[in-house]
């Protein structure tokens, strides 16, 4: 399908307009950027033995995660069980879409939107690794955290800190890849809902 706009006066293409990504959008006056689970790379995500996909009511997104998803069809990933957990996202900061997202942005905090079911299992004593790789190897981020405390703390949606990165100032910015992993223990685990991630953008005039 063509996404070219035509100049009404001359009948010639004026510019190419990229189609909107239904799984990603900006919110809260450009201070948040939401990436739903469908927009992430989830190992075994297309195999229903391991992951299932559900529509998430928009009012639940808005009320519990402050995500305004009006006129969108949002899906979340429900983990049945896996022994290899890997959910990642790569951002090409040189892509026009992300140039606009990170324009004037100094740094970015990554928040994973997760909910534990009452029958969640396999998380006790198993650290999950949150990792961020940036164009500058010296600015990478890795943290191991046991998620059992989150499961005990709350039965609703929670935002779990998954790292941060500085937005490169150079003209050629490169890729940022972030993800959550549990691939060491080989223990079976399940019972979480993943609604994706929210990127909290810290701009030059941002104080929070």
Description of the molecule:
- The protein is mostly beta strands.
- The chain has a single domain, classed as Sandwich (Jelly Rolls).
- It is about 10% helix and about 45% strand.
- It is built from three helices and 14 strands.
- It has helices spanning about 60-65, 95-100, 150-155, and strands spanning about 5, 10-15, 25, 30-35, 40, 50-55, 75-80, 85-90, 105-120, 125-135, 140-145, 160-165, 175-180, 190-205.
- Strands 3, 4, 6, 7, 9, 12 and 14 form a seven-stranded antiparallel beta sheet that branches. The chain has a five-stranded antiparallel beta sheet with strand order 5-8-13-10-11.
- A hairpin with a 4-residue loop joins strand 3 and strand 4 (about 30-35).
Keywords:
single chain, 208 residues, mainly beta, Jelly Rolls, five-stranded antiparallel β-sheet, 14 strands, 10% helix, 47% strand, disordered N terminus
The Cα radius of gyration reads: 19 Å
Task: Identify low-pLDDT runs.
Answer: 1-18
Give the terminus-to-terminus CA distance.
42 Å
CATH class: Mainly Beta
Question: What is the helix tally?
Answer: 3
Strand % is: over 45%
Query: Main β-sheet, in a few words?
Result: 7 strands, antiparallel
Shape: globular
- CATH topology group: Jelly Rolls
The H-and-E topology, N to C, reads as: EEEEEEHEEHEEEHEEE
Structural class: mainly beta
Helix content percent band = under 10%
CATH architecture: Sandwich
Instruction: Give a count of the beta strands, DSSP E runs of length 2 or more.
Output: 14
Q: Determine the mean pLDDT.
A: 86
Number of domains: 1
